[in-house]
Amino acid sequence: MARKYKSLAEQSRALEKRLLAIPADVVRELRPALIKGAQDVEAAMELLVPEDEGDLLGSIQVTGPGETTPPYAVGGGSMTLPENMAAVTVGNTDVRHGHLQEFGTVHHEAQPFMLPGFRIAKPKAQRRITAAISKAIRNAGKGSA
Length: 145
Known about the structure:
The chain is mostly helical and 145 residues long.
């Protein structure tokens, strides 16, 4: 039986709903771990991105919680991230070919760098975020968040 995968937006909404039950102080303490995790993903992608002119490398960017992604980075537009999310985007108004590098075209072989970069950095980022959540919840329980 085929397994249905949730989109990133659906996963984000589900996580946001769960996190809304946690005090705002805890989410505020989580912010540095989210940003650092996204920066780790960004660094891994930058190491793997194929460089011809360097424009694609320069378009890889971290967007922190509550910030707006660059134009053309998300489905042809931009979005404002919730307070419990950080994102790494590839692309801007001048560079809109990251997906073509990642997945290839009829005339161009794929040169993946986004997904491999994410997979390399994900475990460390998850550990950092989990530790930050645990610490923040412990501190909130003590009344010192």
